[in-house]
């Protein structure tokens, strides 16, 4: 072998070793955790995770290992695992605002008048900007937005049509200041209680009512403990499908594109399942005897005018420099509503 041939052979060997090293460096398995059941037919996160897995595995050489039903811990634990890279992909809702406070603006009461408005906002410039901000804050890239649905009040005492009907009632709320401010603003008494203790609290009269999406109310049989539901839709819950940015950067550009598309589709799949379970659950609770009331536009305006100011005031102080996100969201909602 002459010198030129030897050099070419050495270069070819080096290139092969380099390609092999790159291939070995790229992750082969993606761990994906969430807290919902695995059943895709009535679980929003379960459906999103399943379609994400199917798309990624059918279009790349990557495999996706699903960890549903809180098998890796609660949302707070899983989002920390995602930040640390232990579980690169997670789908969470309320936990996001704990690591990216600006995300809490999405919980401002009576901000979205319909799911379509919320989708327009999240899938537009505001959602892109929030995703970039949270990426810089946490190292987590938002691959897609799903939803946990609109939250509604239920109680076992009397029908609620206006904020005046809330007075004197005790409502279980999550241990989140924003929810406490909201219920107090409406004239009721907020009582933070752990989710696991809610059925007992309702049965024993520790609280008169609670607030949750329709699907959650029906699937957990809370309608059997409550007589009245008011479809006020005070908070629209958002799901965040997240991936660790360092993990994402190790993937090939082609695989990154597949994951981004899979994330967007997964978010929309979660939204669809949530809408399905809402419609199905609303019909079911009424058939089983629950009285459901839909407030008029004027009645909803009264709820909004009473609940929003104290929450926004508290949130501006809590967010500090990030308070600008309140104004950005309000403008985005106004633009989306004008386009309706």
TrEMBL record:
Coiled coil: none
Keyword Ribonucleoprotein: no
Spans traversing the lipid bilayer: none
Signal peptide residues on this chain, from the entry's feature table: 1-25
Keywords from the named record: Signal
UniProt cross-references to Pfam families, sorted A to Z: DctP (PF03480)
Keyword Translocase: no
The name this protein goes by in its record: ABC transporter substrate-binding protein
Origin organism lineage: Bacteria, Pseudomonadati, Pseudomonadota, Gammaproteobacteria, Oceanospirillales
């Amino acid at each position: 072998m002459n010198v030129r041939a030897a050099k070419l052979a050495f270069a070819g060997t080096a290139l092969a070793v380099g390609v092999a090293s790159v291939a070995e460096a790229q992750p082969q398995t993606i761990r994906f955790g969430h807290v919902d059941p695995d059943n895709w037919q009535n679980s929003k996160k379960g459906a999103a995770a399943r379609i994400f897995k199917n798309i990624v595995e059918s279009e790349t050489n990557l495999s996706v290992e699903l960890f549903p039903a809180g098998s890796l811990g609660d949302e707070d634990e899983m989002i920390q695992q995602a930040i640390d890279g232990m579980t690169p992909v997670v789908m969470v809702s309320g936990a996001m605002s704990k690591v990216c406070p600006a995300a809490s603006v999405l919980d401002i009461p009576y901000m979205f008048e319909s799911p379509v408005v919320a989708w327009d906002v999240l899938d537009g410039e505001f959602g892109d900007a929030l995703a970039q901000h949270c990426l810089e804050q946490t190292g987590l890239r938002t691959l897609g937005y799903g939803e946990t649905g609109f939250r509604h009040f239920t109680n076992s005492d009397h029908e609620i049509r206006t904020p005046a009907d809330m007075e004197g009632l005790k409502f279980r709320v999550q241990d989140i200041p924003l929810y406490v401010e909201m219920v107090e603003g409406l004239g009721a008494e907020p009582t933070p209680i752990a989710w696991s203790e809610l059925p007992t609290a309702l049965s024993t009269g520790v609280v008169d009512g609670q607030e949750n999406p329709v699907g959650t109310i029906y699937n957990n049989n809370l309608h059997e403990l409550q007589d009245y539901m008011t479809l006020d839709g005070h908070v629209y819950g958002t799901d965040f499908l997240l991936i660790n940015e360092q993990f994402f950067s190790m993937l090939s550009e082609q695989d990154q594109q597949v994951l981004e598309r899979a994330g967007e589709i997964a978010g929309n799949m979660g939204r669809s399942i949530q809408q399905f379970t809402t419609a199905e659950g609303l019909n079911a609770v009424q058939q089983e005897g629950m009285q459901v009331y839909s407030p008029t536009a004027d009645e909803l305006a009264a709820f909004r005018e009473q609940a929003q100011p104290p929450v926004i005031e508290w949130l501006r102080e809590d967010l500090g420099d990030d308070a600008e996100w309140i104004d950005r969201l309000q403008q985005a909602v106004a633009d989306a509503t004008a386009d309706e």
